[in-house]
Amino acid sequence: MQLRALRYFSQVAKSTSLRDAADKLFVAPGAVTRQIDLLEHHYGAPLIERTPRGIRLTREGEFLAQAVDATLRELDSVKERIATVQSVVSGTVRICAAESLISAFIAPAIAGFRQHHPRVSFEIEIGSAPHVAEQLLSGQADLALTFYMPVSAELQVTHSCELQHKVLMSARHPLAGKSALTLKEIVHHPLAIPPANYSVRQLLESAARRENLHFDLCYIASSLEVQKALALQGNALIILPQRNVNDSTGYEHFVAVPLADPLMGKVKVDLCLPRQRTLSLATKIFHAMLAEDIDRQNGVFQY
Question: What is the rounded distance in angstroms from the CA atom of residue 8 to the CA atom of residue 61?
C-alpha cells in the first residue's frame, strides 16, 4: 500500500466530495478515485458512499480514517526527528590537495570547521595537479585544492586566486637579506624541487628556457618536508607560493623572499568540485568555508 493512498484518503475524509478533495490535493479527481479504489480492494470493503449531499465515510471508512490520521501524525513526527538528526553535521570529508596548500588553506579551515562541527572527520591526500584531478574524477576525493587544475568536463573550478611565489631559505643563506630575487640571482644556488609533474617545476623549467638559464636541480623530492629540511640546513633553496607577507604558518624558521619574475611570480590556485555528484552536507559547508577564504585572498593582491 502506498503512502499516497493514505494521504489521499485522509483528505477525502475531511472533504464533502471527491472533487473537493482533489482540489485541495492539487490533483485530478480521477487520481483520487483510483487511490480510493485501491484501498477498498485492499481492505475488501467500501470506504465511502455517495449521497445527495456529497460523500461520507462508511463504518469501515471511519475505522480506517482514525488509523490513517494516527499513522500520518507518527510519520510526520519521524520526519521531524530525522531533520533534527541531520542538522547535526557528521561524516567524513575527503580532500585531495597540493601539499604546500595544506598549511595555507586546508589546516586553518579544518580548525575553524571543527569548532562548529566536531563530529566530522577528514581524510587528506596530497599530490600533483594530475593526481588531484584523478582522485576527484574517480570519486576518491570530495573536493580538491591545487595549482592549475587540469581542464575536464567532469570537474568544476568554483573559486580561484593567485599566490606569490617566494624563495624560502635558511636565515644563514647569503641571499637571505634580499628584498626580492630574480631567477638569475638564484641560478647558481642548489634547489630542492619537486618532480616534473608538479606545476612549480614546470613553471621553473619554462622560465629557464625563456632566460636561457641552467638551474642546479640538486635535490628532487616530492615531499615538501624533505625540501624544507634541506633548505633549513642551508643546503638548498625552495620555491613555494605564499599567501602574503604574513603567511608564515609552518615556515617560521625560514626567510621568504619574493621572486620577481613575470612567469614565476604568481601561481593560480583552484578550488574544485566534481560535477553531477551529490555532496554531503559536511562537504558543502567545508567547501563554502574554503571559498570564503579564497575570496579573502583575492582581496589581498590586486592584479
Answer: 13
Tens-place pLDDT, residues 145-190: 999 898 888 999 999 998 888 999 998 999 999 999 999 999 989 9
CA distance 265 to 203: 10
CA-based torsion, 182, 183, 187, 190: positive or negative: positive
Tell whether the model's pLDDT for residue 1 goes beyond 60.
no
CB neighbours (10 Å) of residue 79?
A: 10
Which residues, listed in sequence order, are joined to residue 125 by a DSSP beta bridge? 96
C-alpha–C-alpha distance, residues 142 and 27, integer Å: 40
Contact residues for 217 (Cβ-Cβ < 8 A; gap 6+): 191, 193
pLDDT tens-digit profile of 195-209?
988 888 888 898 889
Beta partners for 143?
Answer: 95
Cell 567524513 belongs to 92
The Cα–Cα gap between 150 and 255 comes to 32
**Count of alpha carbons within 13 angstroms of residue 119, beta-carbon side:** 9
**Helix/strand/coil for 123:** strand
Cell triple for residue 198? 608538479
* Distinct helix (H) and strand (E) counts, the chain: 10, 11
Digit-coded pLDDT (tens) for 228-262: 999 988 899 999 888 764 454 556 688 989 888 87
Q: What is the largest CA-CA distance in the chain?
A: 103
d(CA 282, CA 88): 10
Alpha carbons 47 and 59: distance in angstroms, whole number: 8
Spell out the domains of the chain, with CATH numbers in brackets: 3-86 (1.10.10.10), 91-298 (3.40.190.290)
CA dist., res. 24 & res. 26, Å (int):
5
Looking at residues 66-87, what average pLDDT do you find?
76
